[in-house]
Amino acid sequence: MPPTHLADLAPAERKAAVEALGHKGFRAKQLSTHYFERLVDDPAEMTDLPARERPSLVSAMLPTLLTPVRHLVADDGRTVKSVWRLHDGAMVESVLMRYPDRVTMCISSQAGCGMNCPFCATGQGGLTRNLSTAEIVEQVVAGARMLRRGEVPGGDAHERKRPLRVSNVVFMGMGEALANYNRAIGAIRRLTDPAPDGLGMSARGLVMSTVGLVPAIDRLAGEGIPVTLALSLHAPDDTLRDELVPINTRWRVGEALDAAYRYFEATGRRVSIEYALIRDINDQAWRADLLGDLLTQRGKGWVHVNPIPLNPTPGSKWTASRPGVEQQFVERLRAHGIPTTVRDTRGQDIDGACGQLAATTG
Ligand code: SAH
User: Fold this and answer.
1) What share of the chain is helix, strand, coil (3-state, %, to 5)?
2) Which residue in 9, 31, 223, 303 has the fewest CB atoms around it within 10 Å?
3) Nearest CA to ligand 1 atom 13
4) Closest CA to ligand 1's atom 20
5) Does residue 316 form part of some domain?
6) Together in a domain, 110 and 34
7) Domain tally for the chain?
């Protein structure tokens, strides 16, 4: 694992850590303010830390975790994919998407992924390792700094009235965050803790996406942080889902949906069902009807469906559904009373769209 960073620690632990280094405890708050509130990364700007103490505090509490390999832009600069190298050479990617009224970041929770979904580029490379809490958080802080520096165009006419910040974070980059549970929860706490202890984001702006690790979904429901849950379903029947999402052999469609429903009951947050539409594989009308039935059987108003046209990935024989078929799939679900919106995809041409993150150096 990487060196411990301030963002790995809860506020009381930060104080203990700086005291253990021989500094006054209140230095922890000053460092947190620089990191989470002022988004400063240059020690020269940390003028409230005595020059003598600064190098030791900064090297121990704010070690460099992510080194940029490159930034790729698409959508007239409004989408930025960053490729990062970690201290041990592992690579991860994050994507920042600026919309007129919000900024969404898609972040990685693991280098690689162990879930092995055949249509996802990350899944093809296997799992390298879990990210630390601070490695997860630092992706968001890096995006916040880019915004603060005016490096990302695309706000609307009202933007001057609102502070420009990352408003949404989705755990939809590389990795299965619920398989790295404690560190992912740590990251959620850092993102939602009020400044200067954390970034002060609203839990409502966060989306935890999962292949359906049932015990972890139940555990998340008990954390008291009402993030939105997204379940990557992709098929309503076990036969096909066993192939598309291999963990389905462990927790079946019905069990994953029951856990998602319990999550809704516990948090009041409407669950999102992710469904990558793959031509002639999972896009049949009968599958839309079966999905509609499975969702309405469990309750009303608890769920919406996000079909995503499949993004191409290297070596995969699959492609996106035809537009007419996609439309029919959406209409069938709506006929069951299920709110359904096709996910807008950004950054396809920079391999920054869903399922395309592979962190290759090429
Ligand atoms: N491991 C988590 C989060 C990572 S992927 C999960 O599986 O939910 C985020 C979303 O992108 C998931 O719904 C995933 O199934 C979807 N996805 C993966 N590959 C894709 C592709 N090629 N096209 C469209 N969506 C894809």
Assistant:
1) 40, 20, 40
2) 223
3) 232
4) 355
5) yes
6) no
7) 2
pLDDT tens sequence across 115-133: 999 999 999 999 999 999 9
DSSP 148: H
Range of the domain at 16: 6-61
User: What is the CATH classification number for the domain harbouring 49?
Assistant: 1.10.150.530
Among 135-139, 259-263, 353-357, the range scoring the smallest mean pLDDT is 353-357
> Which of 113, 178, 232 maximizes ligand 1 atoms within 8 Å of its Cβ, making it the mutation to test the pocket?
232
The pLDDT tens digits for 138-187 are 999 999 999 999 999 887 666 656 668 999 999 999 999 999 999 999 99
Residue 47: burial class (beta carbons within 10 Å; 0-12, 13-18, 19+): exposed
Atom of ligand 1 nearest to the CA of 232: 13
Task: Using the Cα atoms of residue 139, residue 144, residue 150 and residue 154 in order, give the sign of their dihedral.
Answer: positive
SS3 track for 33-54: HHHHHCCCCCHHHCCCCCCCCH
